[in-house]
Amino acid sequence: MKKIGAFLLAIVLVVAFILPYLQTEDTLPLNEANFRFESAQKYFSVKRGEDFVFDCLDMQGVDLLQLEIDGSNVKTWNLDSNEKQDFSFSTKDLKLGTYSIELKAFKGDVLKGADGGRFLNVNAEEGPIKRNFDIVATHPHNPENFTQGYEFYNNVLFESTGNPNQTNATKVARIDTNTGASISEVSQPNPIFGEGITILESKIYQISWQDKKCFIYDVSDLRLIDSMRYDGEGWGLCNNDEYIIMSNGTNELTVRNPETFEVIETIKVHSDRGPVTNLNELEYYNGRIYANIWISEQRKQFDSRMDLRRIIVINPKSGAVEEYLDIENIIRGSNVQNVPNGIAYRKSSNSFWITGKYWDKAFELQLTSKNKEDAQ
Questions:
Q1: Which single residue of 1, 27, 144, 175 has CA 20 to 30 Å from 68?
Q2: pLDDT digits over 193-202, tens only?
Q3: Separation of alpha carbons 220 and 153, rounded Å
Q4: pTM, to two decimals
């Protein structure tokens, strides 16, 4: 038995030694093609409508190159001629967003090289314009409120709060604009962590952070009348008089059916430099979405200009960040210089009320001119 075992071992060693020399041209290992990508670079960016351009080296023995975006073949190049190839793909038919990209090289039907695990950011065509404003008044705000949502409805101010480190902090309140105190309020028990609110057709919708619940109250008496479930995190809410729009801390906003809370559409928010993440409290005004930005450490921010010092103005049809308000001086003027998180448009005065977590003031702003220059 020992002799048979030794004989079999010898055969295995011989096969292992000669196998590399028996490989044919069609069984050569992958990655013969050099796609000239920097190995550490994971994300590439273009403005929508521009060409995504790349180069290729060492393509001998390869006769076809294929570009896949989100798993679909979008363009193929035949390499069987000596002519210089222009490796580019137009993004004019792509929406703003982040797409997975993969290049594949073939000889005949045999895959000779592949490069995946990279992404293409298709960004806004223009940079955001600075929107100027005047501070026309300040108003009291309850400094005990960890503000999550802020909204006027029929000239009445409502606020939602929530703090996982504070007992019974999840509330929806009707606010006295002269004092900042609650006229009436309703709460949810711990561990519910309340987030943003919006009011549509006499119903207050309040989402929760990671509890996947949306609570619905009657606006007249704050009576809880229903609740709905959703997937993922809840951060901020607004509405366009028909649908609810929700943020989840990423660069994606979801447009939702107010009756079922099902997602109708996803808006991917990009500036001209990349996706703008950490979107938080929302307000809808004049066909645009105004958004606070949470601290930049929460998720990677591709556009370093976009942080909590700016309220951004989003075109909901494209997802492009078109304008921004620089509120750095307002933050400095708050009592605690804590995170800004509250945008409420008041129709009666054509103004915005801006506040933040534990602030003792709300700042009333009126929009004025736009700067011609893009954000720096």
A1: 27
A2: 999 999 999 9
A3: 11
A4: 0.87
